[in-house]
Amino acid sequence: DAGITQSPRHKVTETGTPVTLRCHQTENHRYMYWYRQDPGHGLRLIHYSYGVKDTDKGEVSDGYSVSRSKTEDFLLTLESATSSQTSVYFCAISDRTGPSGNTIYFGEGSWLTVV
Amino acid sequence: KNQVEQSPQSLIILEGKNCTLQCNYTVSPFSNLRWYKQDTGRGPVSLTIMTFSENTKSNGRYTATLDADTKQSSLHITASQLSDSASYICVVSASGGSYIPTFGRGTSLIVHP
Asked: Which residues of chain B lie closer than 8 angstroms to A31, CB-CB?
Protein backbone atom coordinates (compact mmCIF):
# COMPACT_ATOMS: atom_id res chain seq x y z
CA ASP A 1 0.00 0.00 0.00
CA ALA A 2 1.13 3.49 -0.78
CA GLY A 3 2.13 5.43 2.31
CA ILE A 4 -0.84 7.78 2.60
CA THR A 5 -2.39 8.73 5.91
CA GLN A 6 -5.55 10.78 6.23
CA SER A 7 -6.70 12.40 9.44
CA PRO A 8 -9.16 12.50 10.96
CA ARG A 9 -10.81 9.39 9.53
CA HIS A 10 -14.20 10.31 10.91
CA LYS A 11 -15.55 13.67 12.01
CA VAL A 12 -18.91 15.16 12.88
CA THR A 13 -19.07 18.93 12.92
CA GLU A 14 -21.66 21.67 13.10
CA THR A 15 -22.72 23.92 10.27
CA GLY A 16 -20.62 27.07 10.10
CA THR A 17 -17.53 25.68 11.82
CA PRO A 18 -14.14 25.42 10.11
CA VAL A 19 -12.77 21.96 9.39
CA THR A 20 -9.30 20.87 8.25
CA LEU A 21 -8.50 17.46 6.83
CA ARG A 22 -4.89 16.39 6.61
CA CYS A 23 -3.17 14.15 4.12
CA HIS A 24 0.34 12.91 4.81
CA GLN A 25 2.43 10.88 2.34
CA THR A 26 5.73 9.07 2.73
CA GLU A 27 6.28 8.39 -1.01
CA ASN A 28 7.77 11.76 -1.95
CA HIS A 29 5.31 12.00 -4.86
CA ARG A 30 5.03 15.38 -6.50
CA TYR A 31 1.28 15.44 -7.13
CA MET A 32 -1.39 15.39 -4.47
CA TYR A 33 -5.15 15.56 -4.85
CA TRP A 34 -8.30 15.92 -2.78
CA TYR A 35 -11.44 14.21 -4.05
CA ARG A 36 -14.92 13.90 -2.64
CA GLN A 37 -17.13 10.93 -3.33
CA ASP A 38 -20.90 11.06 -3.20
CA PRO A 39 -23.55 8.56 -4.34
CA GLY A 40 -24.39 9.05 -8.01
CA HIS A 41 -21.41 11.32 -8.65
CA GLY A 42 -18.36 9.15 -8.31
CA LEU A 43 -15.05 10.76 -7.41
CA ARG A 44 -14.87 14.50 -8.05
CA LEU A 45 -11.72 16.58 -7.85
CA ILE A 46 -11.75 19.43 -5.32
CA HIS A 47 -8.18 20.77 -5.48
CA TYR A 48 -4.81 19.46 -6.47
CA SER A 49 -1.17 20.31 -6.01
CA TYR A 50 1.74 19.91 -8.40
CA GLY A 51 4.43 20.95 -5.95
CA VAL A 52 5.10 22.77 -2.69
CA LYS A 53 2.97 25.91 -2.60
CA ASP A 54 1.64 25.11 -6.10
CA THR A 55 -2.07 24.34 -6.06
CA ASP A 56 -5.02 24.68 -8.38
CA LYS A 57 -8.77 24.23 -8.38
CA GLY A 58 -10.67 21.16 -9.46
CA GLU A 59 -14.26 20.87 -10.62
CA VAL A 60 -15.91 21.28 -7.18
CA SER A 61 -13.64 23.74 -5.38
CA ASP A 62 -16.23 26.22 -4.07
CA GLY A 63 -16.18 26.34 -0.27
CA TYR A 64 -12.78 24.63 -0.02
CA SER A 65 -9.20 25.82 0.25
CA VAL A 66 -5.93 23.91 0.35
CA SER A 67 -2.35 24.41 1.38
CA ARG A 68 0.86 22.53 0.78
CA SER A 69 3.83 23.84 2.73
CA LYS A 70 5.80 20.58 2.55
CA THR A 71 6.03 17.82 -0.05
CA GLU A 72 4.49 15.30 2.32
CA ASP A 73 1.49 17.26 3.59
CA PHE A 74 -1.63 18.50 1.80
CA LEU A 75 -4.35 20.16 3.86
CA LEU A 76 -7.98 20.63 2.86
CA THR A 77 -9.93 23.31 4.73
CA LEU A 78 -13.64 23.93 4.81
CA GLU A 79 -13.78 27.54 5.98
CA SER A 80 -17.43 27.33 7.08
CA ALA A 81 -18.85 23.83 6.79
CA THR A 82 -22.27 23.31 5.21
CA SER A 83 -24.49 20.23 5.09
CA SER A 84 -23.76 19.88 1.37
CA GLN A 85 -20.16 19.18 2.29
CA THR A 86 -21.12 16.00 4.11
CA SER A 87 -19.19 13.44 2.13
CA VAL A 88 -16.29 11.04 2.01
CA TYR A 89 -13.03 12.77 1.21
CA PHE A 90 -10.12 10.95 -0.41
CA CYS A 91 -6.57 12.14 -0.64
CA ALA A 92 -4.52 10.79 -3.54
CA ILE A 93 -0.95 11.02 -4.76
CA SER A 94 0.81 10.35 -8.05
CA ASP A 95 4.13 10.64 -9.79
CA ARG A 96 4.55 10.93 -13.55
CA THR A 97 7.91 9.22 -13.72
CA GLY A 98 8.56 5.63 -14.76
CA PRO A 99 6.52 3.14 -16.80
CA SER A 100 3.60 3.35 -14.40
CA GLY A 101 3.77 7.09 -14.18
CA ASN A 102 0.57 8.85 -13.29
CA THR A 103 -0.86 5.93 -11.34
CA ILE A 104 -2.96 7.53 -8.64
CA TYR A 105 -2.77 6.00 -5.18
CA PHE A 106 -5.59 6.71 -2.76
CA GLY A 107 -5.79 7.09 0.98
CA GLU A 108 -8.42 5.31 3.04
CA GLY A 109 -10.81 8.23 3.18
CA SER A 110 -12.14 10.72 5.72
CA TRP A 111 -15.85 10.57 6.55
CA LEU A 112 -17.19 14.05 7.30
CA THR A 113 -20.70 14.72 8.56
CA VAL A 114 -21.93 18.30 8.89
CA VAL A 115 -25.01 18.64 11.11
CA LYS B 1 -14.60 17.80 -22.97
CA ASN B 2 -12.93 14.63 -21.74
CA GLN B 3 -15.46 12.09 -20.53
CA VAL B 4 -15.53 8.50 -19.29
CA GLU B 5 -18.77 6.55 -19.35
CA GLN B 6 -19.19 3.21 -17.62
CA SER B 7 -21.86 0.58 -18.00
CA PRO B 8 -23.77 -0.97 -16.47
CA GLN B 9 -24.24 1.29 -13.46
CA SER B 10 -24.83 -1.78 -11.30
CA LEU B 11 -24.69 -5.51 -11.76
CA ILE B 12 -25.72 -8.52 -9.68
CA ILE B 13 -24.34 -11.96 -10.46
CA LEU B 14 -24.09 -15.34 -8.77
CA GLU B 15 -20.85 -16.57 -7.33
CA GLY B 16 -18.80 -18.50 -9.88
CA LYS B 17 -20.24 -16.69 -12.89
CA ASN B 18 -18.28 -14.45 -15.26
CA CYS B 19 -19.10 -10.82 -15.99
CA THR B 20 -17.88 -7.96 -18.17
CA LEU B 21 -17.86 -4.27 -17.34
CA GLN B 22 -17.62 -1.59 -20.02
CA CYS B 23 -15.84 1.74 -20.25
CA ASN B 24 -16.11 4.23 -23.15
CA TYR B 25 -14.01 7.37 -23.20
CA THR B 26 -13.46 10.53 -25.20
CA VAL B 27 -10.15 11.53 -23.56
CA SER B 28 -7.66 12.83 -26.10
CA PRO B 29 -4.78 12.56 -26.68
CA PHE B 30 -4.87 9.19 -24.94
CA SER B 31 -2.09 8.15 -22.58
CA ASN B 32 -3.32 5.29 -20.44
CA LEU B 33 -6.38 3.66 -18.94
CA ARG B 34 -6.67 2.17 -15.50
CA TRP B 35 -9.25 0.05 -13.77
CA TYR B 36 -9.64 0.50 -10.04
CA LYS B 37 -11.46 -1.65 -7.51
CA GLN B 38 -13.07 0.08 -4.55
CA ASP B 39 -14.31 -2.04 -1.67
CA THR B 40 -17.01 -0.54 0.53
CA GLY B 41 -15.50 1.89 3.00
CA ARG B 42 -12.04 1.79 1.43
CA GLY B 43 -10.05 3.83 -1.05
CA PRO B 44 -9.79 2.69 -4.70
CA VAL B 45 -6.95 0.32 -5.58
CA SER B 46 -5.44 -0.02 -9.04
CA LEU B 47 -6.12 -3.35 -10.82
CA THR B 48 -4.61 -2.82 -14.26
CA ILE B 49 -3.01 -0.15 -16.41
CA MET B 50 -3.05 -0.16 -20.20
CA THR B 51 -1.21 2.08 -22.61
CA PHE B 52 -1.97 2.77 -26.26
CA SER B 53 0.00 -0.21 -27.56
CA GLU B 54 -1.57 -2.77 -25.23
CA ASN B 55 -4.89 -4.45 -25.94
CA THR B 56 -5.05 -7.03 -23.15
CA LYS B 57 -3.79 -7.08 -19.57
CA SER B 58 -4.52 -9.65 -16.90
CA ASN B 59 -4.32 -9.56 -13.12
CA GLY B 60 -5.41 -12.92 -11.77
CA ARG B 61 -9.09 -13.40 -12.55
CA TYR B 62 -9.33 -9.85 -13.91
CA THR B 63 -8.66 -9.25 -17.60
CA ALA B 64 -8.83 -5.80 -19.12
CA THR B 65 -9.03 -5.12 -22.84
CA LEU B 66 -8.49 -1.90 -24.73
CA ASP B 67 -9.54 -0.87 -28.22
CA ALA B 68 -7.89 2.49 -28.76
CA ASP B 69 -9.52 2.91 -32.15
CA THR B 70 -13.06 2.75 -30.80
CA LYS B 71 -12.02 4.21 -27.43
CA GLN B 72 -13.50 1.34 -25.48
CA SER B 73 -12.25 -0.83 -22.65
CA SER B 74 -13.72 -3.76 -20.82
CA LEU B 75 -12.96 -5.51 -17.56
CA HIS B 76 -13.77 -9.22 -17.52
CA ILE B 77 -14.03 -11.03 -14.21
CA THR B 78 -13.76 -14.80 -14.37
CA ALA B 79 -15.26 -17.21 -11.84
CA SER B 80 -16.52 -14.45 -9.59
CA GLN B 81 -16.07 -14.63 -5.83
CA LEU B 82 -17.94 -12.92 -3.01
CA SER B 83 -14.87 -10.73 -2.48
CA ASP B 84 -15.33 -9.30 -5.98
CA SER B 85 -18.32 -7.35 -4.67
CA ALA B 86 -17.13 -3.76 -5.05
CA SER B 87 -17.26 -0.70 -7.24
CA TYR B 88 -15.06 -0.79 -10.36
CA ILE B 89 -13.86 2.55 -11.66
CA CYS B 90 -12.38 3.29 -15.08
CA VAL B 91 -9.84 6.13 -15.15
CA VAL B 92 -8.33 7.60 -18.31
CA SER B 93 -5.32 9.90 -18.52
CA ALA B 94 -4.33 12.17 -21.37
CA SER B 95 -0.79 12.63 -22.61
CA GLY B 96 0.98 15.95 -22.67
CA GLY B 97 0.87 18.48 -19.88
CA SER B 98 -2.31 17.37 -18.11
CA TYR B 99 -1.90 15.32 -14.95
CA ILE B 100 -5.56 15.35 -14.05
CA PRO B 101 -7.14 12.03 -15.06
CA THR B 102 -10.79 11.63 -15.95
CA PHE B 103 -12.84 9.29 -13.79
CA GLY B 104 -15.88 7.25 -14.67
CA ARG B 105 -18.67 7.01 -12.10
CA GLY B 106 -18.06 3.33 -11.58
CA THR B 107 -19.97 0.06 -11.85
CA SER B 108 -21.27 -1.43 -8.61
CA LEU B 109 -20.90 -5.21 -8.68
CA ILE B 110 -22.66 -7.47 -6.19
CA VAL B 111 -21.80 -11.16 -6.12
CA HIS B 112 -24.41 -13.35 -4.42
CA PRO B 113 -23.67 -16.82 -3.04
From this structure: 99
